[in-house]
Amino acid sequence: MKIALHAPGFVKDGFDSPARGEQRWSMNLAHYLGLAGHTIYLIGDMFYYNGKLVRPGWGNCPKVENVEIYTWTDRALLEEKFDIFMDTGWNKDIDDKRNLSIKSDIYISGFWGIDEQIKDPKGLVQSNKNHFYAYPTKRIIEIEDEIRREYDTSKRLFLPIPLYDEWVEKENDNLITWPLKECFYKDRGDSARRSKIILKAIKEITDKDSGAEVFFIGTNEFEYADKESRDILNEIKRKSSSDTQLPYNTCQKIISYTKLLTTNGSPPAGPIYLESVASGGVPICWGNSNHWGEDLIKLGYGLTENNPKEDDIMNFTLKLWNDKNFFSIVRNYMKDKASYYQVNSAIRQFSDEVFKVLERI
After folding, report:
1. Contact 306/288 with Cβ under 8 angstroms?
2. Do 206 and 177 touch, CB atoms closer than 8 A?
3. Using CA atoms, how far apart are residues 329 and 271, in angstroms rounded to an integer?
4. Residue 52, SS3?
5. Which residues pair with 6 in a beta bridge?
6. Alpha-carbon gap, residue 237 to 233, rounded angstroms
7. DSSP readout, 105-125?
8. Where are the alpha helices (DSSP H) in the chain?
9. Backbone angles phi, psi at 104, to 5 degrees
10. pLDDT truncated to tens, each residue of the chain (361 aa)?
11. Residue 160 backbone phi and psi in degrees, to 5
12. CB–CB of 109/132 below 8 Å?
């Protein structure tokens, strides 16, 4: 098939660009659909780099067969006719105008969550027979079914993000990784308190375990932390390292060595949880209604986001690190949830969903 995908944001170094979320969804689909033999047009946005307006491109990333990178004004893109056009951009009002300039048999709008459908201001999904909407995770679909929104779910597609090649049976040894996101912002409710407690748990681990190391991704977030949190961080720093703009391939390498992925529950259903568990680690599992770890609460192994006690967060984190049996129970629970995002499974799911749509129109 001939497929165009919009990866919102900067595509400076091809698939190794430091992109997560919606952009990574498009980029990983483009990557692995290209390797599967499809003709892929990856659309990146123009961006400013070192004061100059720069085109998206491969940069330091090796070019992938069957994939070309374009921007919105390229004639080769605008004159082409596609089987599928998919957009995972977050600004649907602007993106809709550009999307209509692309000629395609099928249009797919990707949404990261059910509330984001509000960003479909023209109702293109509901009013056009060849326009569909997609979600990247199974959990979002389950939530939509529970809420029973008025959207026509017959136009809904499940197009998972391809995240890992094979499940790794080994269990990693001594690295704690924290992908910081909105942890210490004061307008994030209980987030800062939970984050401070996790820092205390990390400090206790590094104090008692001489082999433990810590890697923080996105440390500029500590600018928003209170003095106590920063003081704890300074004590941990002798055994830690950090980076704010990691290339994707470097980030994946770090995750492949990570034993414990520490998060405060934000984002609630982020792909990095599954990347971690597939690579030999385990994440702190929170159990609010839209998180991977919801069912763990029922089994007595998860944490709730609803004002958890400090002792509960400390004990859960320390037990994941110290108790091999507990670690295995949580990891095995996550294995089934991660299976949708194995590369071959995700690409097969994409093909199955799209072929059903093609038959209908």
Report:
1. yes
2. no
3. 20
4. strand
5. 43, 87
6. 6
7. EEEEEE-SSGGGGGG-TT-HH
8. 21-35, 75-78, 92-99, 124-127, 138-147, 191-208, 227-236, 248-257, 271-278, 294-299, 310-322, 324-338, 343-360
9. -155, 150
10. 999 999 988 899 999 998 888 899 999 999 999 999 999 999 999 888 888 899 999 999 999 999 999 999 899 999 999 999 999 987 665 556 677 788 999 999 898 876 655 445 456 676 778 888 899 988 778 777 777 656 567 888 999 999 999 999 888 989 999 987 778 877 667 888 888 999 999 999 999 999 999 998 876 778 888 899 889 988 898 778 877 778 999 999 999 999 999 987 766 667 888 899 999 999 887 765 455 666 676 666 767 666 788 998 899 899 999 999 989 988 888 888 889 999 999 999 999 999 988 888 7
11. -65, 155
12. yes
Can you tell me which residue has the tokens 């491109």? 57
Residue 245 · residue 18 · CB < 8 Å: yes
Q: Minimal CA–CA distance to 214: which of 189, 236, 198?
A: 236
Which residue type, as a one-letter code, is found at position 129? K
With a CB cutoff of 8 Å and minimum separation 6, the contacts of 302 are 285, 286, 287, 293, 294, 295, 296
